[in-house]
Amino acid sequence: MTSAGSVMPSLLETTESINARLAGAKQAHDQIRFALGIMAVISMMLFIASYNAYLSFDHSWALEVGPRHFTTDRTPPDILTEQALRSWSDARTVSISLLGIRVNVDDAPVLGTLSLLVVSVWLLLATRRENGVIECLLHDTVSVGTSPDLSTSATVLLERRTV
Questions:
Q1: How far apart, in whole angstroms, are the C-alpha atoms of residue 118 and residue 141?
Q2: Quick one: 158 exposed, middle or buried, by C-beta within 10 A (0-12, 13-18, 19+)?
């Protein structure tokens, strides 16, 4: 600053640079929102798959039926029971044909936890990026025509936060 209290033109932020920094903060915010959405979808998939495998009526029914030895002279109820057991068994497998992944529900605790860990790290890094972009933007931006006390208010707030 000069002695008259005005800001030197070489240190001013241009409108384009401020808009670019705000766009960067918006991109980081969008990444955070996307990561939270992915985490919600993964958690819901794990919950639904675990519910269908262990807490549903089909689970207790399939265990009550137990091993059955079907003979060649099967009756319609035996055929329906066998088909119901097959469909329940098939429901314990989650497949994503686009990626070529086929995972059993019993593998969900390990794979689900690992995928949530990866997305959580991504969320942490995106949040830190957004925080850094906004912090630098507040620190470097000076409004033209404001008093020196108001132009340093962002710096004072940042210093209070770090203490």
A1: 35
A2: middle
Q: What is the pTM of this model?
A: 0.60
| DSSP-assigned letters across all residues of the chain | --TTSPPPGGGPPPHHHHHHHHHHHHHHHHHHHHHHHHHHHHHHHHHHHHIIIIISHHHHHHHHH------SS--HHHHHHHHHHHHHHHHTEEEETTTTEEEEGGGHHHHHHHHHHHHHHHHHHHHHHHHHHHHHHHHH---TT--HHHHTHHHHHHHHHH-
Q: Is the pLDDT of residue 10 over 50?
A: no
